[in-house]
Specification:
heterodimer; A: alpha/beta; Rossmann fold; six-stranded mixed β-sheet; four-stranded antiparallel β-sheet; 10 strands; B: mainly alpha; ABC transporter involved in vitamin B12 uptake, BtuC; two-stranded antiparallel sheet; two-stranded antiparallel ribbon; 17 helices; 4 strands; globular; membrane (chain B); transmembrane (chain B)
Chain lengths: 245, 371
């Protein structure tokens, strides 16, 4: 158990009368591949958005590496070392693949912002990462001309370009073919071996069970069970949540 | 189901960088030559004054494009900044006896400072809401400048002294102001180009494409938007001030007019908001067309109808503007433009066989990819 990673206490978010996230207290294992699963509408994506600052929680706290990140602006949370992908893959459609990567380059100095975006060190790193996900031959193409699978790989490469310690993926296997799911799984495993922490929301149970070290099961906006994939699969509360009462 | 290994992808177009670079330099030289020789080529003083009007529109549209082109926030209210720049210049000269050129720059700085709180308030909303907020500011300023007669001259307008003195004749004055506007435009284009290639510019373009996504990657979106908004307001005010010095008279109904802001948007959209020279090209076309219609049909509404029709045509057939449309046309005839779609080896072989049979399917494939 490590408390140094990402954790939340009593996180709550309501939309109108619906409590999408309802007092969720979770600690994710730092340095591991964590999975967040649960039936549709159980609040996984809302939880994701609360943690990454896209929406402000009504109550509760989120902290990362001992720092309070509750309600902070998304770019500050990103700069604290958390990268994320979106459920319906989001890229910059009319920028080229290489430009998509260069958006992730960060500088704090004024001069650093004014110099050319195509610094050779950044371009080299972008090409390296594009090669790693397997789309380096497309660097001059506009992102909107890529296939959906390629766009997913580009989004992942863009997140990696920012060099986050913790990577949150919202349905990385959604809408892509089995060959690509396999490729994404291999990437997650090798990046985890290099020390990246993952938090993955996913419906593809084969992927979840084969990939993750720690599984958290959500139902009605809060965790109902957690443990290793094998433990969670045996848990009667999980079966009940998935199969209905 | 194709496995990972037999996915073949046709390489993206190879860049013929030397040829394009030479073409770009030549194009720039031709443009500069045209601008420099225009006053001596202009047959009479009227045409020269049309040239100044078009140059002024080019300055305003290019200034607008710092916000519109980079961030995609469409402000219909940029007349607020050109009007304030003009009035600021006029009031500093007539009320505080400041040197005209100093007054123009000072007004620009004051307007930039004014744009900070306006930007903080208005850049919180996106899309249509931002457009409405931007219009509201123009309407408020129109009322203020019309009603506050004792200070602004009210509906009677305000007259500015001629900056070069009375011994400089009208054609000479037109010529000087044409070059001054051209110089200001050159500075603007240089700044736009520098931002376009910078990391700051990359962040701004990311905001245009997907603001939330940009922020999730660590781009401080609000600060970026605000900075470029203030830069845009500053340049727009300089453009308004320079126009005021040339024209010598300001009427609030024309200065704080939704139409002026709409022209900046129309010109930029027409030329292409993602292109450096898009607003300039749009200003030349729209500015010339407006003067043509006014000369032909007098002071009727004919030029407004023509503008409306032009905008409809652009939005329907060239949503990205003329420059990207032309670029697309050129690329279409380039042999190396190719599919970037992932295809399996079997599909590729089939396509090649079909291409040999008909000689035409490869063409169709390119069309499809380009959409």
């Amino acid at each position: 158990m490590t408390a140094s990673g990402l954790s939340t206490t009593g996180l709550t978010k309501s939309f109108g009368g619906v409590r999408a996230v309802d007092g969720a207290t979770v600690a994710f294992h730092h340095g591991k591949v964590n999975a967040l699963i649960g039936p549709n509408g159980s609040g996984k994506t809302t939880f994701f958005n609360c943690v990454t600052g896209m929406i402000k929680p009504d109550a509760g706290t989120a902290s990362y590496r001992g720092r309070d990140i509750t309600g902070k602006a998304p770019h500050r949370i990103a700069r604290a070392g958390i990268g994320r992908s979106f459920q319906l893959c989001r890229i910059f459609p009319r920028l080229t693949v290489l430009e998509n990567m260069l958006v992730s380059v960060r500088t704090s100095s004024l001069l650093g912002k004014l110099i050319s975006a195509r610094q050779s060190a950044d371009v080299d790193r972008a090409r390296e990462l594009l090669a790693r996900v397997g789309i380096d031959h497309l660097e001059h193409a506009e992102a909107r001309d890529l296939s959906y699978g390629q766009q997913k790989l580009l989004e992942l490469a863009g997140v990696l370009m920012a060099d986050p310690e913790t990577i949150m993926l919202d349905e990385p296997a959604g809408g892509v073919n089995p060959a690509l799911i396999d490729r994404i799984g291999k990437l997650v495993r090798s990046l985890n071996a290099e020390g990246k922490t993952f938090l993955i929301v996913e419906h593809n149970m084969d992927m979840v069970m084969s990939l993750s070290d720690h599984v958290v099961v959500f139902d009605r906006g809060r965790p109902i069970a957690e443990g290793t994939p094998a433990e969670v699969q045996e848990d009667p509360r999980v079966l009940e949540a998935y199969l209905g009462v | 189901m194709p496995s990972d290994s037999d996915l073949v992808t046709v390489p993206a177009r190879a860049r013929t960088s030397t040829t394009t670079r030479v073409a770009k330099v030549l194009g720039l030289l031709v443009l500069a030559g045209l601008v420099i020789s225009f006053p001596s080529l202009a047959p009479d003083s009227f045409i020269l004054s049309v040239g100044v009007v078009i140059a002024s529109y080019a300055v305003l549209a290019t200034s607008w494009n710092f916000v519109g082109g980079f961030t995609g926030y469409i402000s219909l209210g940029h007349a607020a900044y050109s009007g304030l720049g003009g009035y600021g210049t006029a009031l500093l000269i007539t009320r505080a006896d400041v040197n005209p050129w100093l007054a123009m720059v000072a007004a620009g700085v004051l307007v930039a400072a004014f744009a900070v709180p306006v930007g903080i308030a208005s850049l919180r909303v996106r899309g249509a809401s931002f457009v409405i907020v931007s219009i509201a500011l123009v309407l408020i300023l129109l009322l203020v400048f019309q009603s506050w007669g004792s200070f602004t001259g009210g509906s009677n307008g305000i007259r500015l002294p001629r900056p070069f003195g009375d011994d400089v004749l009208r054609p000479e004055q037109h010529e000087r102001f044409f070059y001054l506007h051209a110089a200001l435009l050159a500075v603007l284009l240089l700044c736009w180009w520098a931002i376009d290639r910078s990391r700051f510019g990359m962040g701004l373009k990311a905001i245009r494409e997907d603001e939330d996504k940009a922020q999730s990657l660590g781009v401080p979106t609000f600060t970026y938007k605000l900075v470029v908004f203030v830069i845009s307001a500053f340049f727009t005010a300089l453009g308004g001030g320079m126009y005021a010095l040339w024209f010598g008279f300001l009427d609030p109904i024309f200065q704080f007019s939704i139409l002026v802001g709409s022209y900046m948007v129309l010109m930029s959209l027409l030329g292409g908001i993602r292109s450096l020279f898009g607003p300039l090209l749009g200003a030349v076309i729209v500015g010339y067309a407006m003067e043509f219609f006014k000369a032909q049909y007098g002071d009727t509404q004919a030029h407004l109808i023509a503008m409306g029709a032009l905008l409809a045509i652009v939005v329907l057939f060239m949503p990205d503007g003329i420059i990207p449309a032309l670029r697309g046309l050129v690329n279409r005839f380039r042999p190396q433009a190719a599919s970037i779609r992932e295809v399996s080896a079997a599909e590729l072989a089939e396509q090649r066989r079909a291409a040999e049979d008909t000689g035409g399917s490869e063409r169709g494939e390119k069309e499809e990819v380009r959409r």
